[in-house]
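Lab notebook: predicted structure, single chain.

Context: the supervisor wants predicted structures on file for every construct in the current expression panel, including those that have not yet been purified. This is the next one on the list. No modifications to the sequence; it matches the entry in the shared construct table.
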Amino acid sequence: MSVQRKQIILNEIAFWKKNKLLPEHYCDFLTALYAQGEEVADDRKEKHTEAVLAKEKKNKNLLYVGLGIVTILLIASLILITTAAFIPIIASGIAICSFLYIASKLAKTKSVMTPILFVFSALLLLGISFKVWDVYFFDYPSVLIGLIIANCLIWLFSGLLLKLVYFSVSGIVGTVLIVFYMFRFYL
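Prediction complete. Output recorded below exactly as produced.
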């Protein structure tokens, strides 16, 4: 086995040991097996592990930025596209379903990405609501109020179900503001 391959394997074993992916005694055994009695330099392992973690962090950051850009583009398309209005609505609906599916998978690992995907989904759903009102029900402001209340109630119940305080607070504040608006201008 080449020295470079051996070092890669030893670095991986050190990564497993540090992140507790395998029990420590297994990692020690594998290190002794692959090192073949040679002294293992901990500094090189640490640097390699840091490089791997830095690369993973960079990839996650790119993913966050990419999903943010997709969300912004979809919201912009909901606002700007007036002809063939069903296309941005369908694209946003597909994005919402995809974001919620990914978030449900990431929720098991308690990823930072989970709440971000929930927020993006909520914003896109609000954008779809505005677009549907704008295209199909523009002459009926009560439909807009109903759609906004429906969004706020979805946020409230999502927050209660998923134990997300920011959704619960947003739902309560939004509903209170809309009800206040209705009493002020319609009564």
